[in-house]
Every structure is written in structure tokens, then in C-alpha cells.
Amino acid sequence: MTGGEELSAAGRGAVWWHRLRALICVLVGLYLVAPLVIVLIISFSSAPFLSFPPPGLSLQWYDNLFGNPVWLRSLITSIEILVPTSILATLLGTAAAYGLARSRLPAAAAIQGFLMAPVVVPVIITAAGIFGFFRHIGLNGTLPGLILAHTVLTVPYVVATVGAALSVVDARLEDAARTLGASPLVCFRRITLPLILPAVLSGLLFAMVTSFDELIVSLFISTPRVRPVTVQMWSNIRGDVDPTIAAIATLLFGFSLLALLADHLARRRSAGGAR
Amino acid sequence: MQGSLKPGGYGLLVLPACALLLVFFAYPVFWLLLRSISEPHWGFANFQVLYERSIYLKVLLNTVVISLLVTLCCAVIGYPLAYTMAHGGPRVRRLLTFVVLVPFWTSILVRTFAWMVILQRQGLINDLLLWLGLTERPLALVYNRTGVLIGMTQILLPFMIFPLYSVMLRIDRSCSWAAATLGAPPLRNFLRIYLPLSLPGLMTGGTLVFIVSLGYFITPALLGGQRDIMIAQLIEQQISNFGNWGLAGALSLVLLAGTALCLALVRRFVGGQAPWGRR
């Protein structure tokens, strides 16, 4: 952005283009964010239906949500899935990314591609396949089944984020530590891990959010007894909708927002060292 | 292979993740695709049904048309935003990044639900249009193609904006300035200099949006009507309603082949990295 920006030849046209672009950006920004804000506001509505703007404010829909054992159970189920999923995905993903970065395997690119495949293959295909497979081995409608399926879907994000961070870590630091007698494990824990920690945390957060928000695979393999909150929401959306759905949507939105902020903080703290 | 896998070598670290994916991803997907030729009997009967029954072909066509329209909408809307993000001041950049990231991290189900609320008959948009006197009766904005396009474009926009932004960041503005100094009118300058330079971003973003659209399920299921269902919905229906694994497998194979073809094309033209990597 230095110098020569306003070339007088371009004159008025440039100013107009500038304004038009600003207007477009504001509109697109609204388009992206306004729907979420509107749902957030409606969740505090005092009206028994989804009207906007709400005639008054109340917490009744949150009351309704936390007072209802079905919603509460589904929320707990979601958390029971997302905690082991995100830990497992982070462990497996970080190990794989580290292995890929340091091993010089001949097929590294192919393995990397394979590990990214669950993001590329349309989820509906993965969901249908896992559903059919789980039917045979009796994992449908079980917590371990949901955890395994969610881990499959979230590992690629960890591999990608941690892999990207590893590619900028100077391998000579590790070599130096190894030369000085550190075992591979100590070297990883004392040298590499601190350097890639923001990326690992970022991967963990994204795995948590992805698992919490996952619907399609869960839709296939969950049963009314083990039902995560998104599936519960899905089955209610298609019936008669009241602002309780807006309340649960706001909860999910809030969770994403928190994770995004945490991710931002993690990156920010590392920004000084990495760049 | 063995040579580089030293005992205790780093290569072993990829094994757990690979094993998990092999058992709980690759095998199930392969099993599903195999149904297309093994059920109800071995042969290509399922593909013949797909080809001969016009309703299935219509769904395939509908999927491609909607995906193309969504890609086009994302390109038109996303381009100016990415441009401003890349060449605006640091505060503008930070604000816009936040605006794009928030929906990106938010559940598709939540965003789709938001559009159901806004676009419904007594929703915000219709209220606004009525109040402004632009329409006399509420418009049908949801449970049809309009609703699907509005919802999917919003949800997939970040996939267009991020690749565009990262390419635009690296564009050397002095080319445009040089052209302007030499008297090129702004539009021509843009078309001849800037647009071609940003084309890789547009291609990557466009392919990404198109590929993700092809397999979309939640948004068309909730915002679309009966008449324009997409391929993912058809797969779900075949399994949940009819237990027709053969046809579901055949449809999955078609969807997967389409996705792979698009990826191969973009690799060919843009080259380099996989477009789905997050940074």
C-alpha cells in the first residue's frame, strides 16, 4: 500500500469503484454473519414462534432446553463423543504428521493423500459406507462407533494443520538436540512440540468443533438411545419448529465462536516466533 | 519401502492413523462401492437403471446445475470481498477475515436453520419486501431452488474466498500501476492484468466450491423442494427408505468419480498443492 495509489488519470472512476467495492463488502459481510445474529436474537424471544424482531426478551427457550431430558441427554452424548474424538484425532494426526515430515518415506505424498481422503470424499459416501460396515459388526448406535467415525472425519484436519507447522520448523534444531544426546522422545517433547503446539491446539479445537457439528455420519449410525445433539436438532427441525431450536443453534454457534477465538489466541501467541 | 523404515523409525508414526482410516474409512467406502455391482446380482444392472430411468438422470443433472450456479454465485460475490481483504488496510483485513471465519467455523446445520427462519413465508426477507412495497404477496424463497442457492452460496463462500485471498496477496500490484501509468483504462487494466493473475485462486476456489456442492446433503434437504433433490439426498433415500444398497453404491460411484475428475482437472491446470489444506 505504498505510494502511487491515486493516479489522477484514473480519477473519478477509481473513487466510484472504491465506494462500490466497500458497499459490496458490507452487503456480503451482512450476508455471511446476519443470519447467525438473527438466530441468536430469536433464541431470546418471548414469542412462541420464530418471529423477528421478537416482541420481547426472555430466557424461556433456554429453560425449555435445559429442562428437557431429551435435549440434555443429546448434549451430553455429543460431549461424550467429542472429547475422546478430539484427543484421539490429535494424537493420531500429530503422530502421522510428524512421521511424514521426518521419515522421508518413499510414498509420503501418497500417504498424505490417503490421510486427507476423508475430507475429499463426499461425506454422504463415507456415512453410507460406515453405516453398512457397522451394521455387520454391531457398532451402530454405540458410543465407540460414533467416536471412531468422528475420529476418521477429524484426523485430516490435524494432519494438515500440524503438517503445515512442521514444514516451517527448522529440522537442524532437532539435529542439534539429537547430537547433544537427547533421545527422540525427549527431542520431540522439549524441542519440536513447543514449536508446533499452537498448530496442535488448533487441530484439537477444529476436531472438537467438527465432531460437535457433525451431522451426516451421525444421522446414519445413531439410534434414539445414543443420539448426538445435531441429530436431535435435525429431527426437530423437520417437525414443528419453536425457538428451542434457535436456543440450541445459538449454543452450537457460541461453541464455534469460542473455539475460533481460542484458535486466534493460540496463533497470535505463536506469531512472534513463527513469522 | 523397507530400506527407509529403520527400526524405531519415524515412518512407523503414520501407522496408527493409516490403520484407523484403512479399517473405518477405506474399507467401508470400498464395501459400499462394491454393492453397485454385487447387489442384487453381480453385474451392471444398477448402472443400467441409473441410465434408463429419467428421474435419476434428472437428479444428476440437477446436482450439476445447482453446483455450477453456486460456484458462479460464490465467484461473483467472493471476488470483491477477497480483493478488499488482500489489498485493504490491516484493520479491514482483520475484520473481513473474522467475518469470513465465523460462519466457516459454524455448523452447517445451524446456518441452514438460520436461512429457514429468514427465508420463510413470514420471515425477515419477506417482511422487508412487503414493507418496502416491492411485492404484494410473500415470495416463495424456501423449499425451492432459490432457497438452496441462497443457503449453499453463503455456506460455501469461505471456500472461494480463502484461495482467492491467498493468491491475491501475492499479486504484484506494480504491474497494474505500470499499466495505469501507461494509460490503460481501469476496466481494461483489470481484465488484462489483474484478473489473469488471480485466475489460479479463482480456479482453485471454484473447483473447491463445485466439488463440495456436488456431495451436499444438509442444505438442499432442508431448504430445497421435492422437485430439485440432489444426488446425496438420493443416496440417503435409497438406503434409509428402500434399503437399495446396489443403487446407492452406483450413485456413490458416480459422485466419487465426478469429484475425482474435478480434482484431477484442477491439479492439471493449477498444479501444486491440494486445495483443501487449511493454510
TrEMBL record, chain A:
GO terms for cellular component: plasma membrane. It is found in: Cell inner membrane; Cell membrane. CDD domains: TM_PBP2. InterPro entries: MetI-like, MetI-like_sf. Residues 75-263 form the ABC transmembrane type-1 domain. One of its GO terms (biological process) is transmembrane transport. Pfam families: BPD_transp_1 (PF00528). The keyword Ligase does not apply. Keywords: Cell inner membrane, Cell membrane, Membrane, Transmembrane, Transmembrane helix, Transport. The keyword Transmembrane applies. It comes from the Bacteria. Gene3D superfamilies: MetI-like (1.10.3720.10). The chain crosses the membrane at residues 22-50, 70-101, 113-134, 146-169, 195-221, 241-262. It is a multi-pass membrane protein. Belongs to the binding-protein-dependent transport system permease family. PANTHER family: INNER MEMBRANE ABC TRANSPORTER PERMEASE PROTEIN YDCV. This is Putative spermidine/putrescine transport system permease protein. It comes from Tistlia consotensis USBA 355.
UniProtKB/TrEMBL annotation, chain B:
Keywords: Cell membrane, Membrane, Transmembrane, Transmembrane helix, Transport. InterPro entries: MetI-like, MetI-like_sf. GO terms for cellular component: plasma membrane. GO terms for biological process: transmembrane transport. Residues 60-266 form the ABC transmembrane type-1 domain. It holds the Pfam family BPD_transp_1. It is a multi-pass membrane protein. Belongs to the binding-protein-dependent transport system permease family. CysTW subfamily. Its main location: membrane. It comes from the Bacteria. It is found in: Cell membrane. The chain crosses the membrane at residues 12-34, 54-83, 95-119, 139-165, 201-224, 245-266. The keyword Transport applies. This is Putative spermidine/putrescine transport system permease protein. The keyword Transport applies.
